[in-house]
Structure to design on (176 residues):
């Protein structure tokens, strides 16, 4: 059940992220055509394109955290047993989840503040709570992905190959 829900969430976030990125590309192409063919650029295009690309990246934080695709140094990994590797991976996921929760809370405070003051962007006049909301969304999604990953590492009975990182094992398990 949890696996199906997680897969559904990933597919929806992929769709939203891809849509935001595609919209950014279309707006940019229209702006280039307007600027160089008709000498009339779309005045808000650069700002909106930047925001859409930021949102498309932030929406992927759930997938990256769930799959453990974040950057990590694995200097001690060859020295650890499989069981110790799993506990280290669990500790990192749980710590990352706690940090993401903390950052999500602070991002919420910022979003609430800019909403209270009715701040908008300079050119497109987009309410800044939608702009800063991308950071809030990224940390909330990363927190949820971290929780799911922590639970998965805690209850999983899959054995880890000592030569492969946890992420490779997860990918191999998903492809079979």
């Amino acid at each position: 059940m949890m696996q199906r829900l997680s897969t559904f969430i990933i597919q929806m976030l992929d769709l939203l992220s891809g849509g935001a990125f595609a919209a950014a590309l279309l707006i940019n192409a229209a702006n280039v055509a307007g600027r160089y063919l008709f000498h009339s650029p779309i005045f808000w295009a650069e700002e909106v394109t930047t925001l859409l690309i930021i949102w498309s990246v932030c929406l992927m934080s759930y997938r990256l955290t769930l799959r453990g695709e974040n950057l990590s140094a694995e200097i001690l990994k060859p020295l650890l047993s499989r069981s110790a590797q799993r506990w280290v991976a669990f500790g990192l996921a749980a710590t990352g989840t706690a940090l993401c929760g903390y950052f999500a809370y602070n991002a919420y405070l910022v979003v609430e503040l800019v909403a209270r003051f009715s701040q908008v962007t300079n050119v497109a006049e987009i309410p800044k709570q939608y702009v800063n909301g991308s950071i809030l969304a990224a940390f909330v999604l990363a927190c949820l992905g971290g929780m799911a990953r922590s639970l998965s590492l805690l209850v999983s009975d899959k054995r880890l190959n000592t030569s492969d990182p946890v992420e490779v094992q997860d990918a191999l398990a998903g492809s079979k």
User: Anything to note?
Assistant: The two ends are 19 Å apart (CA to CA). DSSP finds six helices and no strands in the chain. Confidence is low (pLDDT under 50) at residues 159-164.
